[in-house]
Each structure stands twice: as C-alpha cells, then as structure tokens.
C-alpha cells in the first residue's frame, strides 16, 4: 500500500519541493511522517520491506549479478528515483529535506538481485549518521562477491541484508 501511495504522491511531493524552493522556506520544515526513523540506519520495514528481481535466482547468477556491469543495465534513471526520494524524505519525516543528504537506495541491492524499480525496495538512506549509505555499499559488494564465489547462497545473502544490513556480514559468516 505504501509503495503505491509513494508513487501516487510523487508529483505532489515534487510540486511541494519546488514550491518550497520558490517561496524560500528553510530546510527542516516539519512533515507528518508515515514511516519511522526509529530504526535508522535501517529503513522502517513496514514502509520499505524490500523486494526481489524475479530474473535473478541462484540458477541465473552467472548470467546476471556475477557479470561485471550487469547492474548498470537494470539501474533505474535518477529521474525515476529522485521522485521516490522526494516523497520518501516526506514519508520518513526527515528534518533535513536536502535531496543531496540521501541516497535513494535499494534495500536489497541490485547486485544481490533486488528489484530495480519497486518502491517497496527503495528508500532515502541518509549519508549522515553512523553507519551510513556509504558503509552499506561496501557490505553489498562483499556479499555479492561471496555469492559469486559460492561461499554463500543468494538466498542467505538477500535475507541477511534485507533483515539487517549492519549485521549481514556477521550473520552470513563473511565478516
């Protein structure tokens, strides 16, 4: 439901963002949050449960995620993800409404077969705090490398990162 709401509300969120810029309002304007920040650095699982790309399975990893450059072929455009990011900043009620403070991140990363465009798999992950979006990027790569080497299964990597990316390496025995 939230994912559909985010898509439907995207145009009004962009209108609001543009209006805010035109009027000259300051960052930090309070918004009614529908998603909780209480789980940061993790997303609210009710708002961002994660979803999988049906084309990526254990039997297809050698022709999908384990092929260098494959994620670039399915990565959504920033024009698409920026609309979701604008709405997500409102949904999460972030005080900092500067778009550059966030990465519109795939909870289940593309390199582990996360769905590229499903709003249920995308959320505005802060670059501030500890750990940050930058930290998650390194974890994603280590998990993908382990899957491609056969050290762990795709399912275990996906489950670990979807459940709690901050503990995914320990849970899978990689780190």
Task: Using brief descriptors, characterize the structure shown.
single chain, 175 residues, mainly alpha, 6 helices, 2 strands, 6% strand
Description:
With 175 residues, this protein is mainly alpha-helical. Helices cover 42% and strands 6% of the residues. It contains 6 helices and 2 strands, in the order H-H-H-E-E-H-H-H. The protein has helices spanning 2-23, 70-74, 78-91, 133-149, 154-164, 168-172, and strands at residues 102-106, 122-126. A two-stranded antiparallel ribbon has the order 1-2. Helix 1 crosses helix 3. The longest helix has 22 residues, at 2-23. It is globular and about 40 Å long. The N and C termini lie far apart (36 Å). Mean pLDDT is 86; it is low at 1-31.
Question: What's this, in brief?
Answer:
The chain contains six helices and two strands; from the N terminus they run αααββααα.
Distance between the termini: 36 Å
Largest sheet: 2 strands, antiparallel
What amount of the residues lies in strands? 5-15%
Q: Write out the strand line-up for the largest beta sheet, numbering strands in chain order.
A: 1-2
Q: Per the principal axes of the C-alpha atoms, what is the gross shape?
A: globular
Kindly state the mean pLDDT as a whole number?
Answer: 86
Number of helices: 6
Identify low-pLDDT runs: 1-31
Quaternary organisation of the protein chains: single chain
User: Helix/strand/pairing class, anyone?
Assistant: mainly alpha
Structural Rg = 17 Å
Total number of β-strand segments? 2
């Amino acid at each position: 439901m939230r994912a559909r709401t985010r898509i439907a509300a995207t145009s009004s969120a962009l209108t609001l963002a543009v209006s805010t810029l035109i009027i000259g309002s300051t960052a930090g304007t309070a918004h009614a949050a529908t998603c909780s920040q209480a789980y940061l650095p993790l997303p609210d699982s009710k708002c961002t449960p994660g979803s999988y790309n049906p084309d990526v399975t254990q039997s297809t990893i050698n022709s999908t995620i384990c092929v260098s450059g494959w994620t670039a072929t399915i990565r959504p455009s920033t024009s698409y993800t920026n609309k979701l990011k604008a709405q997500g900043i409102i949904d999460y009620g972030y005080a900092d409404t500067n778009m550059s403070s966030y990465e519109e991140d795939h909870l289940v990363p593309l390199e582990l077969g996360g769905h590229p465009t499903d709003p249920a798999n995308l959320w505005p992950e802060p670059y501030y705090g500890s750990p940050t979006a930058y930290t998650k990027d390194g974890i994603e790569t280590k998990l993908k490398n382990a899957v491609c080497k056969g050290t762990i299964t795709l399912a275990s990597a996906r489950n670990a990162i979807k459940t709690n990316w901050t503990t995914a390496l320990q849970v899978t025995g990689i780190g």
